[in-house]
Amino acid sequence: MNEIHIEKLQFAYAKDAPVIKGVDLHLQNQKTAIIGQNGSGKTTFVKLLKGLLRPDDGRIMVNGEGLSEKTVAQIAKTIGLVFQNPDDQIFKSTVLDEVMVGPLNIGQTPTEAKEHAQAALTKVGLSAVEKINPYDLNLAQRKMIAMASIIAMDTPIIIFDEPTMGQDVAGKAIIEKIIEELAAEGKLVLCILHDMDFAAAVFERVIVFNQGKVLLDGAARTVFSQKEILDQAYLDQPQAMKIGHALGIPGDCLTEGEIIAAFEKPQ
């Protein structure tokens, strides 16, 4: 089982202006969404997990090993991070070469890297464009390329930063399937999201960040049902939950399917 223990984590970009304020979390093999407004500390938090930033205080343990003793290159073999902006990752002249970069950097042979890259491109629906320059594709496709490059590394822990941004319904369906498949393989999947509907429909656990602290943490239905606390973080409930309440459906609906099922249920 993959797990991350975070104890009393502290971080500040500038003295006397902490961004992460004493966070304690135990992350296990659950699909976990991290939500919160801009500036709440979400992206800084995952950069600390990835080793791109180093904490001022506290400890991060990944599968029983301290992160502070490892280099960014060593951490890359365990934790893959898909950035919010794919253009921060992409620099090769063909899609296939781009997706092979990560696998090659963590020690896969060229044959292994190509095999894993092609399998990842199939997962994201872009196997037909492997010889095309990534910048000849649109933003949504480039996000899929960035995602494929991390999937191809086959790390036990994968973090996605806003993967649904700019995606249409079909793109979101592909991303949902990928997350389900990665979780089924035993990987720990974390995802920073502003998309409350996607978080409610896909993730088992939801963590709410607010002003550098964990405001809520629990099962998706439990977290999203706490409207007054979500209001403190300027977050909305999922549309299905709001519609369900407006229609007087008992309980807290997370998806449109649950609303439909409530009406189809014999009275």
UniProtKB/TrEMBL annotation:
CDD domains: ABC_cobalt_CbiO_domain1 (cd03225). It holds the Pfam family ABC_tran. It is found in: Cell membrane. Its main location: membrane. PROSITE patterns: ABC_TRANSPORTER_2. GO terms for molecular function: ATP binding; ATP hydrolysis activity; ATPase-coupled transmembrane transporter activity. Keywords: ATP-binding, Cell membrane, Membrane, Nucleotide-binding, Translocase, Transport. This is Abc transporter. It comes from Trichococcus palustris.
